[in-house]
Amino acid sequence: MTADELLAAINGLGLDGVVTKNLFVKSKKKRDDNDSQLWLVVAARDTQFRLDDLAVKLEYPKKCKFRFADEAILQSHLGVAQGSVTPLALVNDAEGVVNVAIDAVLAQSAKLHVHP
């Protein structure tokens, strides 16, 4: 389920709260020797950002690019398929290598709607 599908499903039910979107990304280079390069980014559905800007915010060198991680990496670390990325899948990260970045907007909301 995508963030837009979740919004459509709860629309009209009178539920308040912020619908989230989740991105599973990988940096092209390591920040340091301990960096797994894997990030689960959780943001408000309407938050817009560029992956390059996100890399800088997460203290990667300016020339370091983020890209969406391929499905094999997603499956091996979070145990879900593309289109089903959720912070709930972090329970499957047995090695604890996936870093998490949460949009500050979400901390201001009393209720969050995550998917699937």
Write the layout of secondary structure elements.
Blueprint (H helix, E strand, L loop, with lengths): L2 H8 L7 E10 L10 E7 L6 H7 L8 E3 L2 H8 L20 E4 L1 H4 L4 E2 L3
Mean of the pLDDT scores?
87
Largest β sheet strand count, sense and barrel closure: 5 strands, mixed
What is the strand tally?
5
- The 3D shape can be described as globular
Structure annotation, total helices: 4
Terminal Cα span: 5 Å
Q: Specify Rg, calculated over alpha carbons.
A: 15 Å
Structural class, from helix and strand content? alpha/beta
- Helix share of residues? 10-25%
Order of helices and strands: HEEHEHEHE
> Roughly what fraction of the amino acids lie in strands?
15-25%
Low-confidence stretches: none
Task: Describe what this molecule looks like in 3D.
23% of the residues lie in helices and 22% in strands. It contains four helices and five strands, in the order H-E-E-H-E-H-E-H-E. The radius of gyration is 15 Å and the shape is globular. The chain is of the alpha/beta class and 116 residues long. Strands 1, 2, 3, 4 and 5 form a five-stranded mixed beta sheet that branches. The mean pLDDT is 87.
Q: What's the short story on this structure?
A:
This protein is an alpha/beta fold. It has helices at 3-10, 51-57, 71-78, 104-107, and strands spanning 18-27, 38-44, 66-68, 99-102, 112-113. It is globular, with a radius of gyration of 15 Å.
Keywords:
five-stranded mixed sheet, globular, 116 residues, alpha/beta, 5 strands, 22% strand, 4 helices
